[in-house]
């Protein structure tokens, strides 16, 4: 069974990944969460959802996972957390899939990855706390960017982000043009 790792932190935007994590479970992929705290301290999301992470970052081995997911939120307090940045670099250098949405790519920037790839994010030069970690030359004004093993998206593009992460994990065929139609188009049934 494939395993995917989801980073959760205070202020993470749960709505940006809710459909994705529902689909991962439906596709038989095991999702595990981790935080920089010990796993007995609740994480409080942007919507005030309280969760306990499965693991503390100190107990994570990237070899156990196919992919790393980083939701948006306000990751500014984490930009200098070397354990986290090292883990992100480890996923990247080992060609494991990384998905980061909205403000999540700021952590990729802090890890030095955005110097090597094109990306998008829901961040601008007016977000001064992220100025030093984002490579503005490589930022694309697109809703979604895939470069090497990294998928980035703006926060409002969470459906397409989920779709591309699922494709990268091999759970959706390339010819399936509307795999998440159920979530995008209302139906009576």
Give an account of the 3D structure.
By secondary structure, the protein is an alpha/beta fold. The chain has one domain: Class I glutamine amidotransferase (GATase) domain (Rossmann fold, 3-Layer(aba) Sandwich). The protein has five helices and nine strands; from the N terminus they run E-H-E-E-E-E-E-H-E-H-E-E-H-H. Helix 1 runs parallel beside helix 4. The longest helix has 12 residues, at 82-93. The two termini are 31 Å apart. The model has no long low-confidence stretch (mean pLDDT 95).
List keywords for this structure.
single chain; 189 residues; alpha/beta; Rossmann fold; seven-stranded mixed beta sheet; two-stranded antiparallel sheet; 18% strand; Class_I_gatase-like; DJ-1/PfpI; glutamine amidotransferase; Glutamine amidotransferase; Prot/Nucl_acid_deglycase
Question: What order do the helices and strands come in, and which of them pair?
Answer:
Elements (H helix, E strand, L loop, with lengths): L2 E5 L10 H9 L3 E6 L7 E2 L5 E2 L3 E2 L10 E4 L11 H12 L3 E5 L3 H6 L33 E4 L2 E4 L4 H11 L12 H4 L5
Parallel strand pairs: 1-2, 1-6, 2-5, 6-7, 7-9
Antiparallel strand pairs: 3-4, 8-9
Helix pairs in contact: 1-4
Protein name: Glutamine amidotransferase
Pfam families: DJ-1_PfpI
Organism: Gottfriedia solisilvae
